[in-house]
Structure prediction request, 786 residues.
Amino acid sequence: MAIAFDEMNVPGGDLRPAYRELSRWLKETPPDALEYRRQEAELLFRRIGITFAVYGDAEAQERLIPFDVIPRIISAKEWATLESGLKQRVRALNMFLRDIYHSRDILRANIIPDDLIFQNPVFRPEMNGQDVPHDVYVHIAGIDIVRTDADNFIVLEDNARTPSGVSYMLENREIMMRLFPDLFARHRVAPVERYPDALLSTLRSVAPLSASAEPTVALMTPGVYNSAYYEHSFLADKLGIELVEGRDLVVKSDEVFMRTTEGLKRVDVIYRRVDDDFLDPLTFRPDSALGVPGLMSAYAAGNVTLANAVGTGIADDKAIYSYMPQVVKFYLGEEPILKNVPTWRCREPKDLSYVLDHLGDLVVKEVHGSGGYGMLIGPAATKATIEAFRDKLKREPEGFIAQPTLALSTCPTCTASGLAPRHVDLRPFVLTGSKQVTIVPGGLTRVALKEGSLVVNSSQGGGTKDTWILDE
Amino acid sequence: MLSRTAENLYWLARYVERAEYIARTIDATLRVTALPAAYIGKTNEWESALLTAGVSASFYETYQEASEQNVVEYLAFSPSNPSSIKNCIEAARLNSRSVRTALTSEMWDTINSAWIELQEVWGKGTSSREELARFLRFVQETSLRFDGSAYRTMLRNDAYWFSRLGLHLERADNTARILDVKYHVLLPEEEHVGGPLDYYQWTSILRSVSALTAYHWVYRETLKPWLIADLLILNDTLPRSLASCYSNLVRNLDQIGVAYGRQGASQRHARGVRNRLEHSHMDDIFQHGVHEFIQEFISDNARLGEIITKQYLI
Prediction:
C-alpha cells in the first residue's frame, strides 16, 4: 500500500497552504490546553445528548461519537471542484432513477445488465411508471468521498436512501466555535449554519401540486430507539417541523394526516428517515409497526412527497456504483468530475478470478452491506479470514465487489501520544429541490482513531472532525 | 401540536413532579423516625410512606417488612416499582427524548444531566443517611430546575399548557393522597387531643408538601389539624393546595380552549371540581367526612386525567 497523502504536511516537511495558520496555532497552543478543550467538548456533547445507538450493544445503548478538536481544512479551490463534481453526480443519480422506473433507456443501451436491477432486493417494482414531483428522487444525498492525493477526490459510496450525519456537521461546528473562537478569527471559514434553511426550502419546493401554498413538512423517524434518533429530533427542531412516528400519521382518502391536539392535519412532504421496507405495512413488510398503512397509496395518488423517494436504494447499491462513470456520461454527456474507486464486480468471471488471486491486497464488500460490516480488508486480515471470504465469494460471487485498498489521506488528530496523522473520509450533503441543487460548504469528516485503521464508521470506533472550507 | 407530543409533555411533567413528591415523602418520614420513641410511639411511619406513595400493595409482593431500608430502596431505587424516583427520572428522560423538539435546551439539559447523575452517582443506591439526604436533595433540585427552566424558557403555547396540566394534576393527586393517609390525625376542631405524636405527624404532612413555613405565615397559629386541612385543601395561595392546583388546571385548560377555539369535556369537568372547592368550607368537609371528601376528590382528579387524554392526547 502506498504511503498515505497527508493533508497538512507534504513529504519533505512543507506545509500545505490551507493548514499554515492552523499549524502556527498548534505550535503556540500547549498540548494540555488541547486536551482540556477535548474534555470540554466531550462534556458538551454528553450534556446536549448528541449520541447514537449501537445495535446489539446493550452496555452502551447510547454512545458518544468521539470528537477530534483538530479541524480538517479544505481550500476554496479544492471545494469548488468537489462541489461541481457532487452536483454533476447527484443530477445523474436523479436522472438514472427516473429512467429506471420509467423508460429504462440505460438498460436498452446495454450499459447496465438488466438483472442487476430486476434481481436487486432494493429495486421497488411499486415505483414502475410512478411519477414523483419534479422528478426528484434523491432530495438528500450523502456522498462519501476519500482523498488519495493532492488532486484526487474519489467517490467511495453514494448514500441515496437516508444518509445521516448532518447533525454532526452542524454540532461539530457549534462546539468548535464555542471552544476555539480565536482559531476561527484567524481563518475565513465558510459557514454551515444555512443547512437547515436550505433543507426546508428544498423540501417545500418538492411539495405535491395538491398541497397548499404553505406546504406542511414533517420528519418521520422510526423512534427513540433508532441509532440516528438524535439527528432526527435535532433536524426537526432546526427546521421547525413536527417529528412524527408512524403512529402519529393516518391515511384517509389517499391523503396523509398527522394526529394533533386539534384533530387531523394534512401533511404534504415527509422527510422520512425510515427505510422503504418499513414505510407501509400494506405494501412492504406487513409485520412492521413503524410505518403508516396506506402511505404508499397516498404516494401513488400524488398527495404526498416522500424524501427521499421510494426505491432510491437502487442508486446506492454497491454493484450499481461501479457503473456510475458510465451513468454520468449517459445522461449528461459529460466526463465525470469525481472519480470512482476502481471496482471489480465479482459477478463477472474475469473480475472474480482476479479478485480471488489478489484477496490479500483488496477490500471486498458485500453489495448490500453497510456500516463497515461484513467486509474484508485484505492487507489487515488473517489467513483464516481470507480463506473464509474466498469460500463466500465462490459460493455467491454476485453478492460482492472488490476494490483496491486505497491510501486514504490523513489529517493531524489528537491521540493519547500527541498529534498524529489519522485516515479520514468526507461526507458532504447534497440537496436537490425542484429548481436547484444546494451544497452547504462542508460535510462530515470521519476519522479512524486507531493508528493505521481505515475504518471510519462510527459503529466501529471512528470519530468525527469539524470540516472547514476556507473562503479564499 | 402532535397528540403524542402533548401526551409526552404531560407525562414528563407528571414524572418529574412525582419524583419530587416521593423524595419529599421519604425526607419527611426520615425526620419523624429520627425522633425518640417517646414522641412517636410505636407507629410505623415507613408503612404510611408507602401508603402515601400509593405503592403499599406492590411493595409487599417483594418485601416482608416495611423497614427503613426496604422502603427507601423501593421508593427511591427499585426498578420493579414504576413510581420509584429512579423510574420516574428514567421515564421523564425517555419522554424528553421523544419530545426534544418541544423542550427548550435548558429543560433538556436539566433532565439529561439528572439522568446522567442518576446512572453515574446513584447507580448503586445509597448506603448511609447522609448519602440518602444528598440524593433527596438532588431529586428536589432537579425538579426545581426543571420547573424553573420550563417557567422561564418555554413559549407560552400549548406545549407549555399541556406540561402544566400534567404538573398540576399530579400535584393535586399527591396532596390529596397525603391527606387521605393522614386524615385520621386531622381531627375535628373541638377535640384538642393532639399529643406529640399528632404534632409530628402534622409537621410531616406539611413538610411533604413544603408548607410548614407557609402555614405560620398564613395562620399565625400553632399547628392545628383543622387549619392544616384548610391550608392544603382550600387555600388558593398555597401552590400545592387542591384549590390552587385546580385554579391552574382551569386556567391552562381555558388557555388551550381559547387557542384552539374550542372548549370540551375537560374544561367543564375541571371547572366543576374547582367550583366545588371554591364553595366548600372546612366545617362542611369535616361534617361530610374528610376521608370521603378526599376520596371523591381523588377520583374526580383521576377522571380529569382520563378526559384530557381522550380529548387531546390520543
Notes: The radius of gyration of chain B is 19 Å.
